[in-house]
Batch of 4 targets.
Target 1
Amino acid sequence: MSVESLFPRLEPLLPRVQKPIQYVGGELNSTVKDWDEATVRWALMYPDAYEVGLPNQGVQILYEILNELPETLAERTYAVWPDLEALMREHGVPQFTVDAHRPVRAFDVLGVSFSTELGYTNLLTALDLAGIPMEAADRGEDDPIVLAGGHAAFNPEPIAGFLDAAVLGDGEQISIAISEVIREWKAEGRPGGRDELLLRLASSGGVYVPKFYDVEYHPDGRIKRVAPNRSGVPWRVQKHTVMDLDEWPYPKKPLVPLAETVHERFSVEIFRGCTRGCRFCQAGMITRPVRERSITTIGDMVEVGVKESGFNEVGLLSLSSADHSEIAEVAKGLADRYEGTNTSLSLPSTRVDAFNIDLANEFSRNGRRSGLTFAPEGGSERMRKVINKMVTEEDLIRTVTTAYGQGWRQVKLYFMCGLPTETDEDVLGIADLAKKVIKAGREATGSRDIRCTVSIGGFVPKPHTPFQWAAQCDHETVDRRLKQLRDALRTDKEYGKAIGYRYHDGQPSIVEGLLSRGDRRVGAVIRAVWEAGGRFDGWSEHFSYERWMSSAEQALAGEPVDVDWYTTRERDEVEVLPWDHLDAGLDREWLWQDWQDAVSETEVEDCRWTPCYDCGVCPTMGTEIQIGPTGRKLLPLTVV
Amino acid sequence: MVQRLRVRYAKRGRLRFTSHRDISRAIERAVRRAGIPVGFSAGFTPHPKISYAGAAPTGVASEAEYLEIGVVAPCEPARLRGDLDASLPPGLDVLDVVEARAGSLADRLECSVWEVRLAGADPREAKEAAECFLAAERVEVERLTKKGLRRFDAREAVVSLTAHEGTDETAGRVPSVPCAILRMVVRHVTPAVRPDDVLTGLRLVAGFAPPSPPAVTRLAQGPLDARTGETADPLDLDRDVRGGETGPAVRHVADDR
């Protein structure tokens, strides 16, 4: 059965919406394959606006890999803005892919990548517009398998009722394996229907199917146990780890949109994983071990990517980019190659040390030296020990002094507020730090023309981190501390004018906390919020704290739990956590020990350069640290 | 800058939903992919030497958009036409490239020819409305601009306005739907009078209200030929010189050098 394009029905609506180009597709390097020649069809969704979703690396990588498979096709779909949503409802146009404008419901799989929990309501909009029943239990044989991935999928329990399946970890290999399971099942004539397909996926060990697990609760609301309700389904579902990044050099052909997006650059992941051990950082915990891409693969990917895309900026991505074992050679090699071409290089996520200034200088060789960003995260020495962000005040001052001395005019400092054990003094320490930064900068340059910006947001405890047991700080306290800090910065006569201040309110963090550490009972809250009009919760102009709180009150009315129970309550060691049956490889006892170490302000070194401290990932997952140096160099590009 | 090239391109089909900013990004990237030796401005953030003249609004298709590229190595116009067209997405199509010889291109774009397709509108009513509009001395319309609601005359800028019956693009599927096509030549004035302003005018003077959103295409831009009331090709002045002919362009070249 062929599927018709929805575009003729969508087109008349487009002149009536904002930025219609985002719904049109046709990006450079996008792919439209013949519907009938494929047997496995994926709709890949990033549950936010096109301008945020299009540059997403995860979606682009899977899109390319799946479309390279002979019998598989993949198209993309994004959250539509409320203006188009209203028109689509009025005119009966269902959720569509932007590639061939096919109805999402016609696909075999709807794969949704959740970088953040704030996309959950957008999933519900897409399901509803697609005509796919929102609750997985109500879906029939003709509905796609709704599959979640991305970092938030490491605790998919709050959306478990809306999902058929979830995948943890790197998607490259498992998406191919899933395609193969579906292809075989279809070739056999779909034996046992949807249920059997899900069972095949679950019993392979790599796919979490929530409906095959029952959750029992204690009368006080805590989870009693989570157990499989089918034979052949594993007790714990493991994450996936791609071990050789050089074998998976994607994206090869980056999507280049016509519409403006949040990242207008070609990005290359230079390594995955991070073992710096920052205790607040979920990404660092769930993506272990460190696996580097080699300098030569990075060079090849940049060369091809720039040529294929026409982008004039290259971003070298990772969780802590300066930690690549050959970053200096990569930086110099790329800077040499692109000198005088108006192609600029950027290196986000760097740490606080002077080495980074050398790198930044290399990257800005013929451009301007405008701003450098560092993330001390905690305002006091004590706080940084708690979170294991091993940066001393001396390090920071030395680094910024070098930066200002070498012509950088602006330094941005990132912090968090509401960290475990935090006091008012810890947060006010940020003001002292910022003043010292300006003082050092003025001394280094002899000029008053330097600036420092303090950027601060609320901390949210995340699953699979040592802080998964911690009480989240209430938003009143966060807001009070943020105000104290603002006053301390503003009222300073000597330095106040040189220091900028940006902050995020505490309330959205509470909602993020509810969704991050929630269990299946939170699903009713998400649905109630969506029914009350909740959309685009990552956007302050759409987010409503009141709507979340009133919906939670209503949806959890019959339960012994509430929002505070999920957020500001500390958990003890024996409590079953909603994600305990999902295995990121981290040893639970090690996590607990690290949590105790946090409270006692004990630091942990990086296992790349010091002996293994038994976090558990490598032996559990059969993986190992993969770092250079390779000793290879980037050669100059040959002009064809 | 060793050479400036003038490019006529079309914005067709789905690509009509691109904004001017979208197009300039797409062109810059296409220029880079095609390896065209574009010049850059000096300064901290160098910008490619590409300038755009009178871009059609978002949602409006066009057969006659113009830009000028400054290059640092000589380019053969025909080759640049092929390279740039191949590098741009289908729907942004390069139609013509000439080497700039004379004066300012923007100055030559005095007026536009617009086609407005009105699915479901009665061609006879459209014709009557057009006649009413042309008979009026002034037709005051309002439009919400970035600076707020503006009120201006939409009549004076309109050089000609005709209506005729057309075949609706969807006529194959919905045979009974009539379609009116307006064709208008409108001078570029400030504030700009756009086809929607003329449509607003038709509603005001004759109560003419088409049932569906208009599909607008710019067919041509150029100097107004006072004799015919139509536009001339704005690139002809550059081409005449290349062909060795004498004409007004020669004087422009003299001015330019």
Target 2
Amino acid sequence: MAENFEPVIVGFLCNWCAYAGADLAGVSRLQYPPNMRAIRVMCSGMVHPNLVVEALEKGADGVIIMG
Amino acid sequence: MVECGRHLNIELLTLSEVEKIEGSEGNFTVTIRQKPRYVDMDKCIACGLCAEKCPKKVPDEYNEGLSVRKAAYIKYGQTVPLKYAIDPDHCIFIQKGKCRACEKFCPTGAIDFNKEHKDEIIQVNVGSVIVAPGFKAFDPSVFDHYAYTQFKDVVTGLEYERLLSASGPYMGHLKRPSDGKEPKKIAWLQCVGSRNINRADNGYCSSVCCMYAIKQALVTAEHTTGDVEQAIFYMDIRTHGKEFEAYYEQAKEKGIRFIQSRIHTVYPNPEGGIIVEYYDAEKGQRVLEPYDMLVLSVGLETDKSAIELANTLGIKLNKYNFVETSSFNPVATNVPGIYASGCFQAPKDIPQSVTEASSAAAAASIALSKARGTLTKEKTFPPEKDVAAEEPRIGVFVCSCGINIAGTVDVKELTEYAKTLPNVVFAENNLFTCSQDTQVLIAEKIKEHNLNRVVVAACTPRTHEPMFRETLKNAGLNEYLFEMANIRNQNSWVHSKEPEKATAKAKDQVRMAVAKAAMLQPLEHLSVQVNQSALVIGGGISGMTTALGLADQGYETILLEKSDKLGGNAWNLRRTWRGEEIKPFLEQLIARVENHPNIKVFKNASIKTSKGAVGDFVSEVDVNGEIKTIKYGIAVVCTGAKEYKPNEYLYGEDERVFTHLEFEEKLQNGISGKQGAVFIQCVGSREPERPYCSRLCCTHTMQSAIELKKTNPEMPVYVLYRDIRTYGEREDLYKEARELGVIFIRYTRENKPKVFKDGNDLVVQVQDHILKQDVEIRPDYLVLATAIVPHDNKELVELYKCSVNNEGFLQEAHAKLRPVDLTVDGMFLAGLCHYPKPIDEAVAQAQAAVSRASTILSKSVMPLDSIKSYVTENCDGCALCVDTCPYGAITLVNYDKDGQTLQKIEINKALCKGCGVCEATCPKKGVFVHGFTNEQLRAQVAAALEIV
């Protein structure tokens, strides 16, 4: 693996907890690597398994579902 | 502010003062003097040319005089209403008869010097009056030893706040005022103009300065580069608010020094900055220490103009010039129909001010409930343009948020990038996309470019989406044709050290938002019928106050009490901190509740089930073993809290050891004893397993200690404490206790007092904080100021899907903006279940809950969110989703097609919360959630990975 490997991670964030948590991380100025691209969902239970597979197929290095 | 400015039923009168008030509750005539603005509000488009061309520079009061404004000005960028004004005291034309530059350059001819300008006298007829003139920051010039007027690098807390602000004099990059260098070592001095009767006459604690100093110390690191040292000089750290103590602990962990000492004198430092002199109690010596800056944490006091206003209105003020109120009616002044809220009532922080504002609104509207709705105006929106069949034309608005975003993300580059994205026909950058003028601008751009989808790249949709949606509605677009890219909270704030990567991420975020926006469809507006009745859970003071507030406005209210008696914890208390007798008030409250025609009281009752949602809840309750079904539109949770029973300090092992409440009962019968009493504070509070301050124990201890001293002047009384937190005017009790000879000994969490038995003697051993030696006390009574702990709210939380914080207190929707709303629509909270608080604050919070609940109950129909599931033609009735729906919103129904009976699902829109579990379960794209369809989410995934 290349030393400067920068993974692209697709995140599905529940509007009520993880997304709010990500907002709070902002308010608290917690610094984290900018590799995740967040998609807001109304519940982590909303994420169809096909979406995860599709994200990986399209080149995502990881998928994280937070809820 | 923006919401207030655009509300149809709020008329703003700016530059106005109350001249006179006549009449009485329900029918006041208020005479108002309005000063001229010299700008026609209808013509002014707030372009700012007048200010740009105005030659007269004036110290900018908003920035505490640290920068300049012009004589033609707005107070700050988000001013409401956003209209310029001419300051007649500084305008060259008004003062000297020459200039008129602003008039020449104003593109709309809004400047108006020609008319003869006189103050305008306006009369308004109102039923209630709420007074909220706020506070003035204490002026520390009187303390020559802090050298505030001599050294530029000594600033007040408010000035420091401006130095940190993006809209402040240095655009949020911290500089030392004397030479513009970045400060590396900053000190804060607490209690400047608070807890001081020497030269300030302010004996009270201002309640907010400890928190603002800690906040400033913590955020300083974000506004400077490299390492920075922060030290806070204090007497007692008072972080008594909800989750404040954890913040204090966090500050200590991050290396902020807390020095318990007062700075004696401030000297100039030849190398720049200042030198402070203080006594270091740990070392037992005088210390001289250089700092780049000293921030004086100035207290809050009532402004002279507010005192004049009080005189005009006939409102009584107390000795500290705060409005005199009672604990049982905390927002009512001595004049019926006139209410006070905010720091004019007593110094307080934002959550409490917001709560109290709602409380004043409730008090004012209960008095006027008969006239409710007679003068209200309804909002009308232009008819919605049908854009469903049009090709997407997307407009992108990129917010700089001052420097919050623009300081990290290259917003210009981002805006240019947005223009290149498919379907985007317009993109621009705004300083504050949320400001009122930008809303007007967005509406204009929608018309000008025929936009049918809007993307805003700014902060979080969780706070700002509703506002932008309304902007779309005003422009004749369906509000759901809107998408946000969260480039502040989830980008610039969290990647502030990596601006290039942050900009790249922002581009991805905008691209994803645009991809989704292109697929958005207009959604139908839904509403529910509101059952205009209420359920109040818990029959203590908060619950009863809430029930009465609702019932007095004519709403049928059910009050549920788990025990066989109303009143709760208040039965165990005798007096409020102001000295008012609690029992008569409590008895009166209970009598009113039990005899109120609109209140049904269920005792020995508990709630078993809950179905439905805001406006239409149905529950089964167990009343004395009998199950009843009740229906209600909103619910207020007032389940209270209880006293912690400790397992330390020989509690339960020696009959001389009491908790707070136990000792209260003992005191009632009168006590005596030569050996005296010892109080230990923070028993169970501010501990790792309960890392919060119980807020009321210090005040309660003062009350008991004072009573002991007054009835037995010879009796020695000791208070062992960590920080005394008699916030606000309660500080007077602390002073009185000291004057009566109560001895205060400070201990630390690491070196707690030890309690043991020596023969028959009860021995308390503690290290004296001045002598640094162990002291032994052999008291007759040991009183433990134990924590307030929440009841187990687990069942309630599961029933209503609301939430609790780490400590088990119910969690409000937003600490500052929605302090009495629960996270579930139509549910509110008040009293100890939220956080420990004294009676006056519990009553205020209960009234606030009444106010918030009334916003729903006052109308028979309430609009609903449109983000709900819908069934597509692909549904074949396999019913996989029926069982997975957590809200029971899906049912299977039969239908006829070509003579065949087929099955498909049906969604109950009131029950559906749009969680989309059905969408993820369905194997055949038969059910989607509006605004989050599989296709829309796929588009976002694809857009996110386009660059890979």
Target 3
Amino acid sequence: MTEWEYLNRAEAAREKLYRTALMTLGSQSAAIDAVDEAVYKGYCGHRKLRQPEYFDTWLIRILLNVCRDELRRRKRELAVEALPETAQEAFDALPLKEAVRRLPEALRQVVVLRFFTGLTLEETADALHLPRGTVSTRQRKALTLLKLELSDGEEGTP
Amino acid sequence: MNRLQEYETLMTELADLPPQLSGTARRARARRRGRRLGFSLGSLGSVCAAFVLAVNLMPAFAQACAGVPILRELAAAVAFSPSLSATVAHGYAQPVGQSQTVDGVTVTVEYVVADAQQMEVFYRTDGEAGPYEVDCDLEDLEGNPLTGYTVSAFTAGSDSGDDLLHFTVHFTEMDVPDTLVLQLRLRKDDGPWSAAPYTFSIRIDPEKTAKAQVLSVGQWVELDGQRLKVDRLELTPTRTALYLEGDPDNTAWLQDLTFRFTGADGTVYERVDGAVGGVGQPEGGVYTYYFQSLYFAEEALTLWIDGAAWLQKDAGPVTLDLADGTYTGTLPQGVTCLSVDEEEGQPVIWVESILHRTPFALTYRDETGAERTFSKLSELQSGETRRFRYFLEEGTAGIVALLPVYTSLSHLEEPLSIPLQ
């Protein structure tokens, strides 16, 4: 992928990236920083991207990695923990945005990519390097915990 | 509010993009460029040495310029480069003479030298003492950002502010436009960039540029068992571009080529005196190398190929366990040792090689397969051995995959020669 293609496609993807980062990290400033960092890392490695058709999921994967690092850093400083899957009442009591952030990471990534970033089931599976069936299962669990009834008609979506 | 209503409200909020997100890709490019500039400052000493050498080797040029004050100054500024010196001597320098002051520092763009694909910008700083690091973005006259170019600078500024400095804009995906706007920013000692950009509108004078001359070659050669087509040369006043193609059946990608030119009278041209040595997409089998300008060379030329660096197409990564230093995979030729050390609580990878060539890419893959970038690379020389230190991103642990830049190198006892008509 050429530099020109990368710059244009990265700029076009920033809305998806921002939604992903904001739903993962919670604050606007942290989300902007994470998007900047991910786009920078992508820029460093864009010439190695062999399949440009997977550009969005590739860049989102880099972003998830950046977000994970940031959450790990915060965990050391602020001791913010995800709630266990059994804590249904605690999820009910939280506003949706906060409840999503407090999902276990595996579930949060799926629900963020599917319903806030706007990826398809296939793209989500590709971004997370997971089988489609696993994405489906995690999506169902996450939506149940959030008491959110969403459907986009794709297989495996409730 | 039920969950669905909450979801809809949240999606509406998320549709509002903060303005700070605008230009994220340009910021990434500028940040990367900043790092590159940081590395290139180390070569200041060699540039100064070249300056002295060139002035002494080109008495005719120095004498020709001595009587014209502005050319004399420009001649000194370009003396490190035979190509630029010849370009200026043949009248391709275009005066600009625009000044702007930001944060008490005045920048004056004095000249540009442009041809089809490259533009040299000569400027000076006046005000608070330097040296400064310089960054440059380009826009068209309507304020739309231009893309497809890189910027390189050997020097970032002087202490006195008297010296004429320069940087190179290399256009990779378009020709130098007739008009453009330079947006310069300066900073000192890794401090903040200037609050506002210095803006200069440049109109390239067609009288001061020259069209590229194309020399078609179209000859296949065999090198280290691989086939390469020497397709053509493009000659411009500031540089020469050599275009090559690899045979799709080759088992390795060409990573680097050592070559030179000679004239019929025995003159040897063997300098890469521009800021950019080569670009291209090795994995597409198309290669471009840049060289000193042969635009003003009048005699018949011969291309000599002396050697090459190759990356086997099926070469896998070298996987390294950071915990115990064990690795799997084939090390690049010349690498004699791969080990892990620790500095300030972070693992650092040490690579020893008998070759002066960076063995692994600046990106690596962590245990999850995610691509990461080394935060720093340093190179030390001890006798015949080079020691490269790769500093991993914070938090990297477990097994990492290192990506070889090359797998083998060759130096031909009998160079390949290709006469050029």
Target 4
Amino acid sequence: MAISEPGAEVAEPFAVELKRAGLGATGLRGGIGHFVRRHPLGAAGTIIMGVFVLGALLADLITIYDPLQTDSALSLAPPNAAHWMGADFMGRDIYSRIVYGARISLAVGIGSTLLGCIFGAAIGLSSGYLGGWVDLIAQRVIDILQALPLLVLALVMAAALGPSLRNTIIAIAIPLIPSVARVIRSNTLALRELPFVEAARAIGMSEFRIAVRHVLPNTLAPVIVLATAQLGAAILTEASLSFLGLGIPEPYPSWGRMLSESAAEYVRTAPWLVIFPGAAISLTVFGTNLLGDALRDILDPRQRS
Amino acid sequence: MASYLTRRLMLMAVTLFGISVIIFFLLRVVPGNIVDILFDSAGMVNPAEKVKIERELGLDKSIPVQYLAWIGGIAQGDLGYSYVSEKPAIDEIAPRIPVTAKLAAMALIFSIALGIPLGVISAVKQNSGADYALRVLSLAGLSMPAFWLGLLILMVFVARFGTIPIYTEPAKNLWDELLLYSVPAIAVGFRSSALIMRLTRSSMLEVLRQDYIRTARAKGASAQAVNYDHALRNALLPVVTIVGIEAAFLIGGLIVTETVFNIPGVARFLVEAIRTRDYPIVQNLVMFIAIVVVAVNFLVDLTYAALDPRIKYAE
């Protein structure tokens, strides 16, 4: 290209171009190789997420100490050979608590994201497909849920439901509903006018079946992109709730709660109590964000940057 | 335009009404009200006493009646009394608002001052090393919980100065006040600046692909003129909308940051009130936050229409 334009790709020989576009990337190995070349940051995100998921699953195998075992002799022990990340005020091993904390963080993150997506999909699909008063009511409910910041709504929900793992998942899932519902609704509005819906209707398919079997699957790509972004938001919200003492109750080792235990004091005396749990939260969310960006590029070409 | 405004204002009223109902009833499904908690902790068992206090607080009435009493009170400027301090809720809430407002304003200024220039650099030098570094940095900013960033900043202060810059007493002069708020404002604003940077970058890239940019280049305008005079001014339009998203976004950061830095603002007060089951404070604060978010979004939409003549609110 003669006109130099920031953002324009330099023309390449066709063969290289086609290879970059994924031609010849066949099979699982080829597919993975192509993903890593095209989306190195996405691949890094996948690896980070993979490490945390494996750590959560294999927590029993990769830790020596019980995350709940207290030992007054170890109170505020700095990192050492036996306890690489040190010990907290009650002498509990920080490394074990972080590994087991991954279970809580991921369980709450994935649980609330799934729950939020299911309810959001149900509301968005019925509101977009049925229209009329269903749409009107759904829109108002979404307006209401959106007028409150995620953390505020989650805080009030968590306080109303009481502290427990299940309630924390519900408290975080509800504020996630509106964005999923909006995306599915707007996609459904466009999809229901398309010929394949008319065709399904012409062969006598029930409206419910058309909505669920034909319209819903076509809205999945943007929802997957959104859900990845929301997974990060859900993990951060759980950490904030637990940090404020309104999330996961003791004795579960939650990363946010590990920071809440008078963290501002430990900044001075025991910085390892502050650094490691916060790094675990940030790294996990960073992984979901990297993966989310790559998925958006792949699945939602309109938003490609 | 007039009909658009009426419609919009009515929808806002419906939203706020819905929030008031939801919050009020949500707070009352909690098993155990303030009286139960007081009696449990004090170990008092005189049931007559308990009934008397419940009557004084109006907790003996049915929930819909309590709701009407609250809304009726708001209409007359009476927000009820705090259960904890027994002072009027308005006297508890109002003095804390300027503290949070200052912090929020400084955080917003910081995030714009950092986010927009970095977003522009990232877009103009797309796919360069600087672009990649900035993109990774902004994602990292979005991944850090605001309270952890706050704690890390405290840690740096301890290491360098041996003190913790947490709020102890109201500042004596403007300069002290700026210093006092600037540290927590960075903790809150960093996350927002990452968001603004990402939006500025994608908006700028979008604009740089437009025909009129090509025309400007063809006419021989310098890169400087094209990037800043032609592209940036248009690219900033969508960035305005982010202020609306930010309003909701910042409040979450304010809640945890005020807790970390011990700042006596409304955001930390909400958490305290939730912990102590101080319903009159919680419900009024949540309504206040909802009004702020709804109003900011409304103003952003109007500003957007004013700035971009292509947008007309008809209907």
